[in-house]
Amino acid sequence: MAEFQYLCKFCFCLTDDDGDGKVKVSQLGTMLRMLGQIWSYASILKVEKELGDRPVTLDTFLRIAKQKRLEEAKARKKPISEQMVQVYGISTDIGLSADEINELKVCFDVFDPEGRGVCSVKDVSQVLSCLGEQLSPADVETLLALENFDGAEHLRFADFCAIFSRLQR
């Protein structure tokens, strides 16, 4: 997300000619399209109308751009197939898309090179401690306890998915 915020700030600063931290509402569409977002003319007009004549600040721009990004991400999510549910033993209401589960399977297979269907809790804990927004060892223990894996030595793929699903909430 930090990269997206940086990109938003960059687009905003390019448009903020006088450096006062505000841009004209009429420039909003240009900035949003600079981010690569797909906006219809009608959608931009609707947002501009909601904002009125007020100038757009960086915070307002970030809020609008993030909302659109979330909407686009939701539209791309593919539901979990019945085959995935049966093969992996994953609940359909886990909150992950088919693409996310496929990505997690690739990660899981790194920890399970023999294909036994389980990975070490210790390995997963180490990865959680150094990925993205780093979790402290205490946070990892809490996360495992929330999923009832505290004290466990191994995780099945469905368990692995449940942990990452909780991280998204």
Based on CA inertia axes, which overall geometry fits? elongated
The CATH topology of the largest domain is given as: Recoverin, domain 1
In quaternary terms, these chains amount to single chain
Q: What is the percentage of strand-forming residues?
A: 5-15%
Whole-number tally of structural domains: 2
Report the end-to-end length measured between terminal Cα atoms. Answer: 15 Å
For the sheet with most strands, the description reads: 2 strands, antiparallel
Number of helices: 9
For the largest beta sheet, what order do the strands appear in spatially? Answer: 1-2
Structural class: mainly alpha
Number of strands: 4
CATH superfamily of the largest domain: EF-hand
Q: In CATH terms, what is the architecture of the largest domain?
A: Orthogonal Bundle
Q: Give me the Rg, rounded.
A: 21 Å
Helical amount among residues, as a percent range? 55-70%
CATH class of the largest domain: Mainly Alpha
Which sequence of SSEs, written as H and E, runs from N to C? HEHHEHHHEHHEH
Average of per-residue pLDDT values:
82
